[in-house]
Amino acid sequence: PAIGPTTDQCLEVSGVDWVAHRFTDGVRFTTYGRSPAIEILVPSAYKPEPLLLPAFGAAAAAIPQGDHRCQ
Q1: What is the pLDDT of residues 27-49, one digit of tens each?
Q2: What is the pLDDT of residue 71?
């Protein structure tokens, strides 16, 4: 399901909004404003983690953007 408002970092990559939730061993990126959401888990070994997001952009963009966007 789509995620609601959050205090986690929100970033836009190639026209897709992602919410980043940091863990001790990596980052979970979840599309923001799209339902269903896409979730990507990136281990810390692949820093900087956001550089991997464009690989998932086409799949994420295929899901219509709702009303919520990163600010």
Answers
A1: 999 999 999 999 999 999 998 99
A2: 81
If you ran DSSP here, which 8-state letter would residue 65 be given? B
Is the separation of the CB atoms in 60 and 31 below 8 Å? yes
pTM recorded for the entire structure: 0.90
Query: Own/partner pairs for 27-34, CB < 8 Å, 24+ apart?
Result: 29/53, 30/3, 31/2, 31/60, 31/63, 32/2, 32/3, 32/68, 32/69, 32/70, 33/2, 33/65, 33/66, 33/67, 33/68, 33/69, 34/2, 34/60, 34/63, 34/64, 34/65, 34/66
